[in-house]
Every structure is written in structure tokens, then in C-alpha cells.
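Consider this:
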Amino acid sequence: MSTFQPPDPRDRPARLTVGVVGAGRVGPTLAAALQLAGHRPVAVSGVSDASVRRAAQLLPDVPLVTPAQVMARADLVLLTVPDDALPGLVEGLVETGAVRPGQLLVHTSGRYGAHVLDPALRAGALPLALHPAMTFTGTPVDVQRLVGCSFGVTAPEELRLAAEALVIEMGGEPEWIAEESRPLYHAALALGANHLVTLVAESMELLRAAGVEAPDRMLGPLLGAALDNALRSGDAALTGPVARGDAGTVAAHVAELRKHAPGTVPGYLAMARATADRALAHGLLKPELAEDLLGVLADGASLPEDGDDR
């Protein structure tokens, strides 16, 4: 169990007023964490009903206002909008004169580094990119999940210490990411976390189709052990029919998936090929077995789907 204890705000005066532009799942959570560290949330902007409810739950008594009003009231502004909306938001804030010299602007996009805030930098703002490597529910439990969470940090060198200090105050662990490496960093996280959800959801659906009443209970220990082994040992943790070179078993898998869940076949084949390549390179898959296995995977990809006349 973590021994992290957030600073008591009563132990020292609030140092920064904090605003949130975009009351999605991330912004109010980070603002609540900063509040625990002694900062003072003063304004939130959000449009949807869900945003209003989320802000009220995580930041009670903090007024919901326009983005321009958030900018006017806060020393530190969290720009927590979708990646594709971020450049336009920054340009709009600068064009309307909302950005103030000396104002800390923090975005939480994994894709972008600090350069996306260059228009604000030219207006005198201090740009920071702080991306929490965590999935969020938009509920108070997220604040505790920040404890020990890694943040991808990118900022001008002169602001590096300030950026890392903010992460530490939120209970996180700063990890410096070079500007040019941000897209690769974000792709790596998406590959591991976002695709994992898809794989687990598909696995649970297939188990239900096979008659398993509680697929989550069945998968929990298995996936927990697999994740722990993978984090500890990397490719050495590979197991299963692909890593063993059991071509017949893999062929049976493909046949059953085509019958019961044809939409899962492309993903199964792609992951099986990637697994085979890694197992072969790591010496787990014997070369003499790999040929038959890769042949099954190639045949599986070339077979027509049900109802396809090719």
C-alpha cells in the first residue's frame, strides 16, 4: 500500500490559482490533486452536462465560466482538451488576447510536446506539457491513482524543474520526454493500454460465447500474471501455442473464430504474427516449427470470410 500523504493545504498558503479549460476526465482530476498540494482552483470551463457534473464532483464550489474567464482568473491554466482541438484552442486564446505574460499554460496531450504552445510562448506564457500515463474515470478515485503515476514531461529547459515539481506535487513521477519523441512515446502508450482494452473485451465476449458465466473472474488472475511477467521479463514471458509453434492449435483457433466471431480474425492473425516474430527472435520458437506456423497464419489471412464469394 502506498505511504504517500499529500500536503495539508492548511500547512501553507495557496501559491497558485488554478484554472481548467476543458472539464473532461483529466483536467478536474489534476486540479483536485493540485488543490491537495496547496494550490487554489478558481475557475473551470466545460460545455456538456457530463463536464458540469464532473467539475461539481471533483471541484465543488469552483465556478464554471468561459475559457476567457478561466484565463483571466488563473495563474496556472490546464488545457485539457482532445489532442486534435489543442492547436486551435491555443491559437484562439492568443488571438483574443486571453494569454497573459508569466502565465503557466499546461497541456496534457500525450501527442504534443511544448512546441504546440509556441503561440502562447510568444505572448509571454510559460509552456509545459505534462501527460499523465494513466486512464481516467472522471471520478474522485482518479486523484489517488495519480500517486506513483508516470507523467511524460516536456518543457523548455529553463522550466524543466518547475514542470517536474508540479508533477511531484500531484503525487506523480516525472519522466522527461524529448520534444521530437512525443509522437513515438504516445504511440507506445496507445499500443499498450488502448489496444489492451480491445483485446480484453474481445476475449470476454468469446468466453461468454463459449459458455463461461464470469469471464472477468476467469481472466483476472491470468491477465494479471501475464502483465506482471511481461513487465518483469519482456519477450521471455511469451507462452501459448504461437510461442510453442503449435500450428495445428492455431489453425483450430482461426477456424473457430471465423465461425463464431469473424471480426476478431484480422486482429488475432496480426498479433499472432507479431508474437511469432518476437518468439523466433528471442529463441523461444524453434525455426523448424515456425515455418508451419507462419504458413497457417498466411493461409488464415487469405481465406475468404463467411459469405465472401472470392
Q: What stands out?
A: The beta strands are 17-21, 40-45, 76-79, 104-107, 126-132, 150-154, 173-176. The longest helix spans residues 182-209. The radius of gyration is 24 Å. Residues 6-14 have pLDDT under 50 and may be disordered.
